[in-house]
C-alpha cells in the first residue's frame, strides 16, 4: 500500500511537501479502514484518502504527482512530445530548479515474475517497502531531462534502503541482484534522457522491469497525463468491450439511482451506444439525456472496479462532481469491505463535499491550501494537533479550525 509522497517544484507546489500517512502504533485499529503497508507489517495506512481544500489549492496537484510517477515509470518511452507532460512552479527562481518526486509503498519484493496467489504472497518472507525517486531538470522552458532515477527497497521495511536500480545525470545505470542488467548493456546505453529505465527495458523483455511496469499499471486514474481522449465515447467503448463491468455497474445503478432499471450497450451504425431504461418511461433514454450525476458515476466506476478487483490505487479527481453527497460515503465504504476489496486497494480522491468528513477518520483526511505567493501546502489531519476521534470534523473544518478553507470577502 502507498504510504508516503514527496513533491517539490511541481505545478502549484514550489517548496518540498512530504505527506507521510503511516498511522501511529498507539492508534486503535480500525481494520476495515486501515491496512498493513504489506502483509504482517505493523505499520498501517488508510485505505481511503480524501483531499479537501479551496479551488486551486493544490488538491489535483497531489493526485497528478502520483499519476505522473505511475505514467513515467510505465509509459514514458512511448511519449513523443518535445518535453515531458508536466510543469514546474511558475516563478523565476523555479525555472531552473529540479522537479523532485518520490513515493514509498509496501509489497512483494520478488521481481522475478513468479505467479503467486494472494495466499502465497501473504505467507511470503520476501516482503517489504519500496522507494521510487525521480528528479527532472527543466531547460529552456521544457522538462525533458532525467537527472536522477532510483528504486530502492527495505526487506520487512527495516534497515537501510538497498538499491534495486539507480540512474544518474549521465544516464549511467546500476542494477542489483534483484534487477540484473547482464545482457542488456546495449539497451541501457540507449535509454533516452526523457524515458524511464523500466519503460525502456521492459520493451526488451527485461523481467524485473516487466514486473515493475505491471505494478505501475495498477494505478487507475481519471487525471490525464499523456492522453487527450478520456471522454464519454471512450467510456462507452470500454463498457462495450467488457460486459462483466456493465453487469456490475447495473447492480450499483439499481442501488443508488432508483430511476434507472438498467443500462444497455447496443451497437449502432456509428459504434456502441449507451441506453438507459427508466421506470415509467416507454422509450430507453440515450446517454446525452441521462442525468449528469449518473454519467459522472459511470465514468469513474470502471476505474474503481479495476482497483477493487485487482488491487492498486484509484486516483479520482473531483469524486463528488455531480454525485449526491449520500453516494460518496457508499463509494468509500466499498474500500472498507473485505469482500469487495480483497487486495487492500486504496482510494485517493479530491472533493469539495465537506459533509463527507462526518464519515471519515482523521487518518483519512488530507488538506491543501495556497499561500499569498501561490504556493500549495499539503498536510494530513494527523499533523494537526489535538484532534480527537470524537471531534466533529465537518463542523470544525467549516469553522476554520484546520485551515484549508476559502476566504470569502
TrEMBL record:
<feature type="domain" description="ATPase AAA-type core">
    <location>
        <begin position="275"/>
        <end position="358"/>
    </location>
</feature>
<dbReference type="InterPro" id="IPR003959">
    <property type="entry name" value="ATPase_AAA_core"/>
</dbReference>
<feature type="domain" description="ATPase AAA-type core">
    <location>
        <begin position="50"/>
        <end position="77"/>
    </location>
</feature>
<dbReference type="InterPro" id="IPR027417">
    <property type="entry name" value="P-loop_NTPase"/>
</dbReference>
<dbReference type="Pfam" id="PF13304">
    <property type="entry name" value="AAA_21"/>
</dbReference>
<protein>
    <recommendedName>
        <fullName>ATPase AAA-type core domain-containing protein</fullName>
    </recommendedName>
</protein>
Amino acid at each position: 500500500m502507498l504510504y508516503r509522497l514527496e513533491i517539490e517544484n511541481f505545478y502549484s507546489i514550489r517548496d518540498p511537501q512530504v505527506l507521510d500517512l503511516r498511522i501511529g502504533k498507539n492508534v486503535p485499529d480500525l481494520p476495515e479502514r486501515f491496512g498493513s503497508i504489506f502483509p504482517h507489517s505493523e505499520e498501517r495506512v488508510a485505505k481511503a484518502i480524501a483531499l479537501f481544500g479551496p479551488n486551486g489549492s493544490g488538491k489535483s496537484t497531489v493526485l497528478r504527482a502520483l499519476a505522473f510517477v505511475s505514467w513515467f515509470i510505465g509509459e514514458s518511452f512511448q511519449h513523443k512530445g518535445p518535453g515531458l507532460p508536466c510543469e514546474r512552479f511558475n516563478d523565476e527562481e523555479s525555472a531552473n530548479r529540479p522537479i523532485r518526486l518520490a513515493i514509498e509503498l509496501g509489497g512483494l519484493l520478488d521481481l522475478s515474475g513468479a505467479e503467486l496467489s494472494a495466499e502465497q504472497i501473504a505467507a511470503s518472507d520476501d516482503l517489504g517497502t519500496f522507494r521510487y525517486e525521480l528528479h527532472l531538470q527543466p531547460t529552456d522552458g521544457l522538462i525533458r531531462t532525467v537527472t536522477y532515477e532510483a528504486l530502492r527497497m527495505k526487506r520487512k521495511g527495516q534497515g537501510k534502503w538497498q538499491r534495486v536500480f539507480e540512474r544518474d545525470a549521465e544516464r549511467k545505470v546500476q542494477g542489483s541482484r534483484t534487477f540484473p542488467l547482464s545482457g542488456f548493456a546495449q539497451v541501457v546505453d540507449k535509454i533516452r534522457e526523457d524515458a524511464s529505465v523500466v519503460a525502456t527495458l521492459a520493451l526488451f523483455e527485461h523481467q524485473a522491469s516487466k514486473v515493475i511496469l505491471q505494478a505501475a499499471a495498477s494505478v487507475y486514474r481519471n487525471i490525464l497525463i499523456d492522453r487527450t481522449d478520456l471522454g464519454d465515447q471512450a467510456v462507452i467503448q470500454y463498457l462495450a468491450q467488457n460486459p462483466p463491468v456493465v453487469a456490475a455497474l447495473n447492480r450499483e445503478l439499481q442501488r443508488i439511482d432508483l430511476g434507472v432499471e438498467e443500462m444497455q450497450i447496443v451497437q449502432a451504425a456509428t459504434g456502441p451506444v449507451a441506453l438507459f431504461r427508466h421506470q415509467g418511461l416507454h422509450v430507453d433514454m440515450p446517454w446525452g439525456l441521462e442525468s449528469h450525476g449518473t454519467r459522472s458515476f459511470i465514468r469513474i466506476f470502471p476505474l474503481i472496479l479495476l482497483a477493487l478487483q485487482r488491487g492498486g490505487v484509484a486516483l479520482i479527481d473531483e469524486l463528488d462532481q455531480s454525485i449526491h453527497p449520500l453516494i460518496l460515503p457508499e463509494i468509500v465504504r466499498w474500500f472498507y469491505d473485505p469482500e469487495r476489496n480483497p487486495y487492500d486497494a486504496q482510494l485517493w480522491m479530491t472533493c469539495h463535499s465537506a459533509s463527507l468528513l462526518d464519515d471519515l477518520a482523521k487518518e483519512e483526511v488530507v488538506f491543501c491550501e495556497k499561500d499569498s505567493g501561490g504556493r500549495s501546502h499539503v498536510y494530513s489531519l494527523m499533523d494537526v494537533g489535538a484532534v480527537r476521534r470524537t471531534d466533529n470534523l465537518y463542523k470544525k473544518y467549516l469553522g476554520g479550525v484546520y485551515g484549508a478553507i476559502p476566504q470569502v470577502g
